[in-house]
Design goal:
The chain is an alpha+beta fold and about 525 residues long. It has 14 helices and 20 strands. The strands form four sheets. Strands 12, 13, 14, 15, 16, 17, 18, 19 and 20 form a nine-stranded mixed sheet that branches. The longest helix has about 35 residues. It is globular and about 85 Å long.
Length: about 525
């Protein structure tokens, strides 16, 4: 009897085991089938680090890196592999494309390799990839079958940072990189080889007697503060980051701290002068600086001016409100005088006019009122949210005020019928913002030189007198005056060097004190 019972139990356990195996297999198959039906990509960061020196080690000033003729100050490489672990995907499935971001760094160029190899040709040249801003790109919409992979090799400029990836069109799953410490040197060599394949325009140049060190810096420890123009702030923030990283790499004992704030140009300049004149020591002279759009009044001659270049402003509107030909100065004045409730009055759409201005004291506003409105009467402010009139207002238009360049552009980008003014280069980072011609001329260098386009300002930095030697402020200003920093301002922020202008109004403004 016991034998029979044991045999029955054993048989029962065998049946349970078989059933369990079947359930497990069915579950795995179900998971596999579900994943095959999902829009899912996996990504792994294979390499993300300096190109020309080991992490944590000083940058070698004897080695220059340039791409397409422009110096790359803090060259870094990122290599990212993306694999389709879900369903087969058509190009149309990437209506929302994969976004890759490198916060705090600027992308110079990128290239793609793939498995199978013929996929790489579908990516095209990097110049055709979407660029929401200088530190990110959108991966081209390329059809991917299950298990297809591609690898992105990216040349970056900037201090070490993270890699971020997102995809609103499906699931994007990060994988943990498997880079063994003993193979770090091999990984660095492989990343460098990948970089060399990015473009014929990229080259490494060993030290030559006649070649200057790229953006060489003199560094001291200390703290400085920059206030003022929100139009200039992104450029100064970028320069400060490059300077600090370069400084610490070249001089490990130095620890410069640069704080870049935002406020109105006029308010910041008045505070600088007041504090400087009250001070009985050199604290203000040693630590404070102001970003300012245009030339500042200096009746007491207490300021020192440090010119960055010409920053170009533009009239910006939400797409579709104004025809591509733009507006005349007279039509712009009609809008800002409050004489139009819809854009049809100035030859545009029938959308309601929503004027977006900057606050009093803004350098951008001062340039707009001086160079475009030319003293004409301005419409009163009627709205606190820019979308609708405040209670009790009876005007036919909406007019609001924003405190920063970014808030103006964000408002124009998100609101139908919104129109304002802002830095042209920054405006190009906003998808629904249209930069308008003024009197038939655009914000290009030729039209500025010909004095056909007049909405711009010389961007300046002001200090209370010349800062003393041995201070972070003096070191930073010396760095900003160098060719490398000026090239960065032109390439990344669209500043036009004063040296490009000769016998015209722009050159006179650059030279004026």
């Amino acid at each position: 009897m016991l034998d029979n019972l044991g045999q029955n139990v054993f048989g029962f356990l065998q049946v349970l085991a078989a059933i369990g195996s079947i359930i497990t297999a069915v579950g795995l198959l179900g998971d596999w089938l579900r994943n095959r039906r999902k829009k899912q990509l996996n990504y792994r960061v294979h390499w993300n680090g300096p190109m020309t020196h080991a992490a944590g080690q000083p940058f070698d000033p004897k080695l220059e890196v340039s791409y397409a003729g422009t110096a790359v100050t803090l060259p870094e490489i990122a290599v990212i592999r993306v694999a389709n672990t879900g369903a087969d995907l058509k190009a149309s499935d990437f209506h929302h494309r994969v976004l890759i971001r490198f916060p705090g760094r600027v992308i110079q160029t990128a290239t793609a390799a793939s498995e199978p190899e013929d996929l790489a040709t579908d990516f095209g040249d990097f110049s055709g990839w979407g660029r929401p801003d200088a530190s990110s790109f959108l991966v081209p919409a390329v059809a991917l079958e299950h298990n297809d992979k591609y690898r992105l090799s990216v040349l970056l400029d900037g201090p070490p940072g993270e890699v971020e990836a997102s995809w609103t069109g499906g699931k994007l799953v990060p994988e943990k990189a498997r880079v063994r410490p003993r193979r770090t040197a091999l990984a660095l060599g492989g990343a460098t080889l990948a970089l060399l394949g990015l473009s014929a325009g990229l080259y490494l140049v060993p030290d030559r007697p006649t070649a200057p060190t790229v953006m060489a810096v003199t560094c001291h420890s200390g703290t400085m503060t920059v206030d003022g123009s929100t139009a200039v702030r992104p450029a100064l923030t970028r320069l400060a980051a490059v300077f600090a990283a370069r400084c610490r790499a070249a001089h490990p004992d130095a620890d410069p701290q640069i704080v870049v704030n935002e406020s109105s140009s006029g308010e910041a300049l008045r505070e600088l002068i007041t504090l400087g004149q009250r001070s009985t020591d050199q604290v203000v002279r040693r630590t404070r600086m102001v970003m300012y759009d245009g030339a500042a009044a200096d009746p007491d001659q207490v300021l020192a001016r440090h010119t960055l270049g010409i920053g170009v402003f533009g009239l910006v509107a939400h797409e579709g409100a104004i025809p591509d030909r733009g507006l005349s100065v007279g039509q712009i004045r009609t809008l800002w005088n409050g004489q139009a409730s819809t854009f049809s009055v100035v030859g545009g759409s029938g959308q309601r006019v929503r004027l977006v201005s900057r606050q009093d004291g803004s350098g951008t506003r001062a340039a707009f009122e001086r160079q475009v409105l030319a003293g004409t009467t301005k419409a009163k402010v009627t709205s606190s949210n820019c979308a609708d009139q405040d209670p009790g207002q009876t005007a036919d238009y909406v007019h609001c005020v924003q405190m920063t360049t970014e808030s103006v552009l964000s408002t124009v980008d998100s609101l139908d019928g919104a129109i304002g003014y802002a830095d042209v280069h920054l405006a190009r980072n906003y998808r629904h913002v249209q930069v308008l011609n003024i009197n038939g001329h655009g914000p290009g260098e030729q039209d500025i030189a010909a004095e056909a386009y007049r909405f711009w300002a010389v961007e300046n930095l002001y200090t209370f007198g010349e800062p003393p030697e041995g201070t972070v402020l003096k070191d930073f200003l010396t760095f900003v005056a160098g060719d490398g920093a000026r090239g960065l301002l032109t390439k990344e922020f669209g500043y036009l060097p004063c040296s490009r202008f000769s016998n015209d109004e722009a050159a006179k403004a650059c030279a004026s004190k």
